[in-house]
Amino acid sequence: MKYYIIAGEASGDLHGSNLIKALKKEDTSAEIRCWGGDLMQQAGGELAKHYKDMAFMGFLEVLMNIPTIFKNISYCKEDIQRFNPDVVIFIDFSGFNLRIAKWAKQNGFKTNYYISPQIWASREGRISKIKRDIDHMYVILPFEKEFYEKKHGYPVQFVGHPLIDAIENTPLQDNVSFRQENNLDSEKPIIALLPGSRKQEVQKMLEVMLSVKKDFPNYQFVIAGAPSLPDEFYAPFLKGDKVEYVSNKTYTLLKHSHAALVTSGTATLETALFEVPQVVCYKGNWISYQIAKRIITLDYISLVNLIMKREVVKELIQNDLTTKNLKSELSKIVEGTERERMLSDYKSLKEKLGGKGASEMAARLIVKNV
């Protein structure tokens, strides 16, 4: 069968690549065309568009790039018609994907959604579009099944979280060779800096993350470079105080880190699954933040806290993200009782997420439902 998959961010590329591998096992004659990134291409998908050309962060940035977004939507529709797939599979990226889903459904294509739009966080009214345009939904967070089925009467399948598979399937360097290869101190514990994957957020996050470095002289700060950004983008942040940088090795970095400062998003859950105590950071464009504050209905922004339904990791958001606050919160998790409490909570988190096999289960259901 023929599958058309649309992912629009680095995390979607990761989960899309594992889905492609699982689909090829489930359907040995599978033909797959996709919007995604290098990982999906390496897994066997024919790449129609790279997510680097599509990832715009925040309301203001989206407004500034509307002509490009509409061009991408038109091209996507034309490309789907040319490929004529048996099913179109959407991975997160709701602003774009729900528009394509409406068109795809109207044009007789089967529509499956893997990794739900976060309508439980904002604009819950989009449930009407999902009910109308999506034939089958596969969710990855335990509370999403209850949200869709009990609150909205829309049946979904909970397949577990694909990050568990992604982490297990990623080969990781041992501590000694990782430190040697990246010129890291062989003794100092590592504090990982995960500032995000888009230029705008990285620029905002790194300045404040690095501002606390001088207060932790017995630790080495290491920036996790995103695969979506070139190495030279990080060069200005590496001047002055000695700060290290590793490119496209986030999982290995987390494996060997003592603590982390993490921009909100999927990375907060990845950090928790590696059992690294963390402080969650977020500071957006002022206009974007003011709009988001009025439409997002959640008590927390990190996946860790949302899944656990309580504060497991500290969130420093917008005006609370200051050098003083960050220093205070980081101090609490590099040693002492707060560190131990967080590590204990991470174990409960893993239990809630279920076991491995999310990609395989989603692939089986997709093939079955076509």
UniProtKB/TrEMBL annotation:
Q: Which InterPro entries match?
A: Glyco_trans_19
GO terms under cellular component: membrane
Q: What class of enzyme is it?
A: transferase
Which is a Pfam family this sequence falls into? LpxB
Q: Which domain of life is it from?
A: Bacteria
Q: Which GO terms describe its molecular function?
A: lipid-A-disaccharide synthase activity; phospholipid binding
| A single GO BP | lipid A biosynthetic process
Give the reaction(s) catalysed: a lipid X + a UDP-2-N,3-O-bis[(3R)-3-hydroxyacyl]-alpha-D-glucosamine = a lipid A disaccharide + UDP + H(+)
Keyword GTP-binding on entry: no
Question: Could you say which EC number(s) this protein's record lists?
Answer: 2.4.1.182
User: Which keywords has UniProt assigned to this entry?
Assistant: Glycosyltransferase, Lipid A biosynthesis, Lipid biosynthesis, Lipid metabolism, Transferase
Record's function text: Condensation of UDP-2,3-diacylglucosamine and 2,3-diacylglucosamine-1-phosphate to form lipid A disaccharide, a precursor of lipid A, a phosphorylated glycolipid that anchors the lipopolysaccharide to the outer membrane of the cell.
Name of the protein in its database record: Lipid-A-disaccharide synthase
Q: Which organism encodes this protein? A: Flagellimonas chongwuensis
**Originating gene:** lpxB
